[in-house]
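Milestone M4 deliverable, item 7.
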Amino acid sequence: MSGASLKVIYHDLYLTDYPTASCETPSRVESIMRVLGKDYPILEPSPADEEDILLVHTPSILESVKREPDLYSAALMAAGGAVMAAELACEGQVSFAAVRPPGHHASPDGHWGFCFFNNVAISLEKLIYNGKIAQALVLDIDLHFGDGTDRFFAGRKDVEVANIQDNHREAFLRNVDRALSSHEYDIIAISAGFDRHVHDWGGTLTTDDYFTFGRSVRDFAADRCEGRCYAVLEGGYNIDVLGENALALCRGLEPTP
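Output delivered:
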């Protein structure tokens, strides 16, 4: 088993067939786990507590998701997977959380785009609330602007949100490096969308680019924040390439032995 120092976080609840758009299906996570399950040890998370959700979302959003029990169970487990990844990162353990539903379009008082709770925002806010970190960077590489994450952390000095929105490969990778070098951080959280791939909706990045991106994050984290970084799944809809793209990112993130 290669890359044993990187862990994959997964739970069968991520395969729940809750009502959503036709493209955001359980087969997304299935395609990823068929690949990552061969190379990495799998950790099973616990669901997030309601108190965790309320660090980011209003009670009305919590109650609205709770009205759909199957969706609610999956969404709590997705947030729990991100929380587990963040906690592991604080211990110097890199992980990829293969969660579903995604989260970066979920704002404090609203959600859309297949997202219900903002997994990355919840995971970081819990670390901050518990005094485990003081400065964080969110690198969102999804094709779509992570408006929910951006809205929650707007005006904050302790969390920088970098939505990388370039439509050209070279500019995209340059701006990832620029975001990494812009400030000092205690931790880096990746909103890992894969829908910018050449065979997905965005038509921009190659599979090798995800490796390059992961390696840039790994090297920065190793040099500047004691290796603390983690990735949480967002978009990516072509299941023929999704698993290989996730694998490329994970291989890039693997810590140096």
